[in-house]
Each structure stands twice: as C-alpha cells, then as structure tokens.
Amino acid sequence: MIRSPLANPRIANWLYGFTPPERGVVVLRHRRVYIVPTRAGWLYGATLGILLVGSINYALSLGFALTFVLTGLGLAGMVHTARNLARTAVSAGRAEPVYAGEAAQFHLLLDSRVPFERPSILVRHVASGAQLVIDVPAAAVADVVLAVPAAKRGWLPLGRVMLETRFPLGLFRAWSYVEPDARCLVYPRPERTPLPPTSPEAHTGAARAQAAGSDDFSALRGYQPSDSPRHVAWKAVARSEDMLTKQFSGESAGELWLDWRLLPAELDLERRLSCLAGWVLAAQQSGALYGLRLPGEEIAPARGDAHRAACLKALALHKAP
Amino acid sequence: MNAQPHPLAPELRAVSGRDLAALVASLLLVAAPHAEHSPWWVAMLVLSLYAWRVYLGITRAPLPPLWLLLVLTAAAMGGIWAQYHTIFGRSPGIVLLCLFSGLKLLEMRSHRDATVVAFLCFFLIVTNFFYSQSIPTALVMCVALVAITTTLVGFAAPQRRSQANLRTAGLLLAHAAPAALVLFLLFPRVQGPLWGVPQDAYAGVSGLSDTMSPGNLARLALSDATAFRVEFRGEPPPPQLRYWRGPVLWDFDGRDWRMGPTILSKFTPPVGGDRTYRYSVVLEPHNRNWLFALETAASLPPGARYTEDGQILSRRPVRQRIRYELESVTDAAPETAQDSGALRRALRLPEGFDPRSVALAHEWRDASQSDAAIVARAIDFLRAGRYVYTLEPPRLGVDSVDEFLFDTKAGFCEHFASAFVFLMRAAGVPARVVTGYQGGDVNPVDQIVTVRQSDAHAWAEVYLRGQGWVRVDPTAAAVPGRIASGLARAVPEGEPLPLLMRPQLQWLRSLRYQWEALSYKWNIWVLGYDPQRQRELMSLVGMRDADWRKLTATLFTVLGLFTALLLVWSLRRVVRPDPVQKAWQAFCRKLGARGIERSPFEGPRDYSERAARDLPQARGAIHRIGELYVALRYGAAAPPARIDELKRLVRDLRLS
C-alpha cells in the first residue's frame, strides 16, 4: 500500500503552511487557503463552453455578452470564496475538563477582522468528524463549540481543524487547516464504588479497614470489583449465585483517605483510577474531608471544588510507576 | 477520512421553500418570452408543471414518481413531434428546453438538482436571443441574471436573509462587469457558423419576396418592423427621391409577378446625376440576398454582386443584421444598352387575361406617336380615374387587372404597379415591376433614416428607346399624397394604420425617435460588434492588424490583471491595527529580546511588574508603560495625548 505523502509530518507541514500546534491567534493568510472548483463549478465551466460555442455558431452578440458576464461571475465568485475564509483569525478558547467517555467541548473563536459578514463557514474536527456550519458576523467574533469525543484520560489535544466554505456561488470550495494549541483535560471515567471507611490514624488500608466500621454492619449490596474480598458476604454468596458485599456504617466523621492501596491488587491501572475518581466524587458529595494517595503522589485532605479538581487532575495525569 | 456527511455538499441539502420560489421566479423570467412563439398547449403545460411543483413545495407533498415523469416526457415529446414533425431544429429545441425545465423541477429534491435548473436558466436566456436581441429583452434578461445569481447565493447561504443575498449577488455581478466588458471587446471573434444551423433558424423574419400578388405588400405594410436604417453623411435626400430599390419582377402569370432567373453582370457606375449621397445601411435580417440601395447605386458594398436588372445581391442570405457603406446618385442617366432578349422578356404577357385592359392598351398604341406618349396617356388615365389607395383592397377575381382598373378602383401600390406594367406591355412598351421601399422616417434626434416594412412599395420601369429604363411610379400618379407625405396621409381616414403612423400620436412618435436613436447605437456597437468592428476598435487604440494571437495575449493579460486587482481588493487591510495595541506589542518584543517573554496567561500588569523587577534600571518607564496600556486598553476613553505618550515611551525604552 502506498502511504500518503501527507502522513509525513514534514511534507504536511510544508503543504499546509504551518507547524502544529500553533500558539495564540492564528490568522488564515492567503497562503493557507486552498481553493478548487466543486462539481457544480466544473458543470458551470462546461455550461460556459456550450454557451460560447452556441454564441459563435449563431452569431449572437448578446449570447457572447451573457457568456462573458458569466465568466466574470465565475472569477468574482472564486475571489469571493477565498475572501470568505482568508484573514480569519482563529484562536482556541477554554475547554472545561470532562470525564473519559464524554465529549470535550472545545471552544474556537473565529474573529472576522473584516467589515463584512462571512456566511456559511464549516468548522470540522478532522479526526472525529465533529462539525458545524456557522456565520461569522462582520467585525465580530464567533464562538464555535466542537464536541470532540474524549475516549481516554489525560490531555486531549484538539488536533487539526478544517475550515471550509463554498459561499457565495457554490462553484468553488475554499478550505484551510488550523491546529491551535488547545487541549482538554480528561478525567478518568468515574466508577461508582462505596467509599472506604474513615480513619484518622490508619495508614495502611488493611489496618484501617479492620479498625473502622467492621463492627457496624448495616446492609448488603451488590458486589463491585473494587470491594475488598474481606467485605464480601461469602455466606450470602453461597446461598445465591450473586456476589454480595457487606456494607458498614459509621464512616462520616474524620479524614477520609482515598488510597490506591485500598483497591484490590488484581484491578488494572485504569480501573483503579476509575474507582478512585468515583471515590473522589462520592467523597465530595458526602462533604467529607478527603485526601488522595497515589504511588509517588499525595494530596493532603481538604474540601471544595478546587481540591476535587486537583485530585481528578492527578488521577487524569497519573502515570504508571 | 470519516463517514460524517458533509454539510456543505449540495446533494445533501434539501431545497427549501425560498429556494423553490427563487428558482421558479427566475424560470418564469427567462421562459415567459417564449410563450409568444411556442404552441399554446406547451405554454400551458410548462406553466402547470411549474405550478404543480410550487403546490407540492407548499404542501410538502412527495414529488411525483419517476415513471410518471417519464410518461409526461414521452407525451410532451410526442406532442412536439405532432406539432413540428421533428424534435430537432431551433423552435422545437427551445420548446423542449422549456418543457425539460418544468420536468426537472418536478424531480428536484436537493441543491444539486436545483443548481442544474439554475444553469438551465442560462441556456433559456440565450434561447431568447434567437428571437430578440433588443434593449428591452436585454434588460429583462439582466433582471433574470440577478435573480439566478441571488438564487445560487441562497443555496450557499440558506440561513441568510434574502436581502443580504441579493446584495451579495449585486456585488458579484458588479465585480463581474469589468471582466465581461474586457472579454466582450477582446475575445477573438470568429465569423460563424461553425456548423450547419437548423433549417428553421431564420423563420419568421419579414420582408419582400421574389413574388408579388395582389394584397401581399399591403399585408407587409401593416408591420411596424424596421427593414433597415440609413445614416447619411450630410443631409438625407427629400422623401420623393428616397426610392430604395429591391427585387425586380419580370414574369406575370395573370395574377402573380415573379422574379424569374437572375442574370449577373458587371457593375458599371452610372453617369451624370445631380447629387451624390454617401451613406451606410444597417440592414435587418430578411433571409434573402437583396441589399437595398438608394436609386441609383454608384458603388457596390464589398463582396456584393450585381444583376443585369440592377439588383444588388449579397453572396449569402442576410441572416444577421449587416452594415454596408454605399454611394448613390439621384437623377442619373439611365442605362441605355439592353440586349434584345431582356426586352422581349419585358413584353411578355399571359394569353387570354384582362381583355378590357388589352383593348385599352391597343387603343393607346394606335393613337400615340411614341412610347413616351403612351406612358403619358397611361399616367393621365390613372390620375383621372379617382382611384382609392387602401390597405384593405377588395378581393380580385381571375382578370385581376381589369377588375382593379375598371370595377373596384381601389388598391395598394402593387395593384397600381401591376396594372401599369400590364398596360405598358399590352401596348408594346417594355416594362417591369420593381419592388423595394419608398420614403423612410428621418429621426430628428440623430438624423438617421429608418425604413420600415410599412414603407414597402412597388413601382414600374419602362424602357424608352434612347433613354433606357425609366422609373415611373403609377401610385404617385394616382395618389400623389403617398409619395409626398407617406402612407398615413394617403389612405382614407378610419382605416387601420400601423400604430406609430397614426397622426394623433405625435408625442408617442417623438418618444419613438429617441428610442430609435438609442436602438441604432445599440445595434451598431453591441449587436453589430463583429470581427471587423473589433479590428477597427483595436487599431483605434494603436493595435495594428490585431489577429487572434495578439487578442488572446492581451485578453489574458487584462483578465489576469483584473483577477489580481480583485484579490488585492479582498486582501486590503480594512481593520487598522489599534495604535495602543501596536505600541504594546513593540514593548513586548523589546522585552522578549532581553529574555523576558510574556506568557500567554500573563496579564499586562503582572508582566510589567515582573519586567520591572528584572530590569530595575528601566523600572520607571516599564511601570508607566504598563499603567498607560491598562488605562488606554481597558479604560473608558483613550485621549490621543496619552496614546502619544505610550508610543514615545515604548520607542525611547532602553533596556541595556
């Protein structure tokens, strides 16, 4: 199979006229705006040819005039199509963090920078195909939100975005690529798991698990992979097919440590991070003072949205030791 | 790359109500003029197809199935075959195109189909020019062009207001105009046709023919259509001298006069004459070879041929408006040399017709000394006969000359000419009928003489020994007013006249004169712009012997220049950079060169604080710049004095 030369980043960068990612405001210079006739454009050209031959054959002076006005119209249409895109200033706005599996909402700001309207501009995220058509008003900024699916935790770069227009006549298609330096933080997909017990002193999961709450049995609930085998209601399992976990009460007071080591060892990295993210959310909801402990990283117990964001960010960016 | 549908792809965009309305309006503009020359059922059918599609658009009902459209197409083609006995040729082709526009409308779902219909409109515009290239037609088609362009813009921006799209269309057409003008003037013109044009391409043009029967000139005289226009260098001749010579008719069968075989001959300019007129003629197409000239022609247009009986013929039938230069002399001495064969032909009469006229002619023959005396008697006879000049002559029977001369006594010029020549031949004087035009209207605006079909005329020429062929106008003898003051004064009051000849419409006529003057310019410069005019124009701007290579080179240079200008226009800096912003950027660059780069998140205050810490020697200036920038950029007012201060501070900032 022949590899597309565009797969080579050096060729692609030269061709597209920029080296990604681009910081700050990107102005679409004419050098970066490409233009080719559309299928309708080719049909228009053929129409002009037939009109010209007919005018010559029947010596129709006004036929010539019409053919030439239409030729001029085609030329003007070409320039206007390129103009509709050229000199637009593109910059990336904020992208609020999302959880893996959701769509990252990338804001792109299209600054018209000219005193005329730029109608019908298609903004398309190349990799995901997320797209929408907008009108950029005269001398104003249009805010475009591209919903890019975020599959994995970590930083999600925006990647290449295509801007395309066929305005005003649909005879030509002008397009340009930008790759703004925008990224979105993707938290691990949170998995709802019961919180570990609170323990002001406990430092190891095992000790704390025994010390706290093991006597105040409150209920049985469905087994979740993050549950410690110690809490599985083995007797109940023996009676029925379902795995059940014993739940304990009395976990509201004191510091809550969301510790990596509390999770069963057989869970893989991503799964553990998902469970931890679920814990962070649950802990935030319960109003507890909570801290996060990851291999090689520790966030002191605190409360509030900023703390939650810091914890989730640590989970999102955590690398396997 | 991925399977997402492309939102700008025309095949995926449904036709909206507005698109449909704009398309149907455009179609009506370009197809309506065809209603005049197409069969009534086609006009009705096309209109109902449009109406049907509009109805389906309003009710959002599904479009008709393909089989129904195919049946309709087949039926329409069958109807056209029945009407024209062919589906090729100009008229059936145009009618078919109109029908297809309606049928295509009925299977139009997406913008792709709608674009095809819009392009079809361009073809329909051109088909209108087959019938008329007048200024009103051109104006209507300009309106149609704006409508189609707006329609196309509407396809590209469906969410935009229609007025905005109309403005865009106007701007596009305004930008197209210079290129169109350059192309019109410089595109190398080729003399068509490139291939054979259909047989019926020139149907429906009116003019004189090579036969004359009672009543056919009178019918022609009811037409206001222009036959030709003449521009004289200097004064036009008076009306009674304006005889425009055309077909000469020799052979009579008792009812019709025919031209018979034409014999070409060498042209010899006439001798004598009291005045020479130089003029150019713009002849409307009449699908015949005659070129009309003021009697008597003293030169021939280039490429024209000359016949023995003084007709000037072009090599090919006149199918486009042509222009030729001529010289004529009035009252020239007639040609005397004439071979005996031609004179015998000029005496031939059918046997057994019009006995009363033959008897009258013989009576004159016996009582007269010379041929000239016979002619004089005949003229006296017509003058005394109280003949009525009318556009509605009574129908005549087998002995048409007898009935006209002695019974009905009412006729048009062909009756007078026919009867006169018959009498002359019966009396033994060689004579022939000459048809052409007499008179013409001088436009007071530009002094151009317009000769209309209503000026069609027939007169006689008799051969007098020693003098040659002499013009005799029996109509002038019987009805003197016809020649002196035109058709309108000569016919009795109450008879229908061509509209513009009616005397009570004086104001309309003066308007008409203005219009005629404009049309003349239009015909000469727009419609008559041919390879020859192009060469003339090019030599005017200093390009000698412009051939197609030179023209093409110039054309592409000018077109390239035009596109470049448009590009520059689209690139022009319209938003002037804010001086405050400019000064701030210069400040950031200066600091950046010293290694203090501004981070994207860093506000101006933080940045200048940091810079002032790092560069204590310029501390004061840096602080002041930061302050000024914040005040000017985010403050309510920006007094020019403070902007100047900021600019000066940044300029004078020394960091080393």
Helical amount among residues of chain A, as a percent range?
A: 25-40%
Largest interface: A-B, 66 and 74 residues
How much of the sequence of chain A is in beta strands? 25-35%
**Total strand count of chain B, please?**
18
Number of helices of chain A: 7
Radius of gyration of chain B: 38 Å
Give the amount of beta strand of chain B, in percent.
5-15%
Number of helices of chain B: 23
Report the radius of gyration of chain A as a whole number of Å.
30 Å
The domain count of chain B comes to 4
- The N- to C-terminal Cα distance of chain B equals 54 Å
The proportion of residues forming helix of chain B, as a percent range, comes to 40-55%
Shape of chain B: elongated
**Overall pLDDT of chain A:** 82
Q: What's the helix-strand series of chain A?
A: HEEHHEEEEEEEEEEHEHEEHEEH
Strand count, sense and barrel status of the largest sheet of chain A are: 5 strands, antiparallel
The general outline of chain A is elongated
Q: Which strand order do you get reading across the main beta sheet of chain A?
A: 2-11-10-6-7
What layout of secondary structure does this protein have?
The complex is a heterodimer of chains A (321) and B (656).
Chain A: H1 9-16, E1 26-27, E2 34-37, H2 39-58, H3 61-85, E3 89-92, E4 98-99, E5 103-111, E6 118-125, E7 131-136, E8 141-149, E9 154-157, E10 161-165, E11 172-178, E12 183-187, H4 205-211, E13 217-222, H5 234-239, E14 244-248, E15 255-259, H6 269-286, E16 289-294, E17 297-302, H7 305-317
Parallel strand pairs in A: 4-12, 15-16
Antiparallel strand pairs in A: 1-3, 2-11, 3-5, 5-8, 6-7, 6-10, 9-12, 10-11, 13-14, 16-17
Helix pairs in contact in A: 2-3, 6-7
Chain B: H1 17-31, H2 40-59, H3 66-84, H4 90-106, H5 111-131, H6 135-156, H7 162-186, E1 211-212, H8 216-220, E2 226-232, E3 243-249, E4 251-252, E5 257-258, E6 272-283, E7 290-291, E8 293-294, E9 305-306, E10 312-313, E11 322-332, H9 340-345, H10 355-367, H11 371-384, E12 388-389, H12 400-408, E13 410-411, H13 413-426, E14 431-438, E15 441-442, E16 449-452, E17 456-464, E18 468-472, H14 474-478, H15 481-485, H16 487-490, H17 506-527, H18 531-540, H19 548-571, H20 579-593, H21 604-614, H22 619-634, H23 640-652
Helix pairs in contact in B: 1-2, 1-5, 1-6, 2-4, 3-4, 4-5, 5-6, 6-7, 7-19, 10-13, 12-13, 20-22, 20-23, 21-22, 22-23
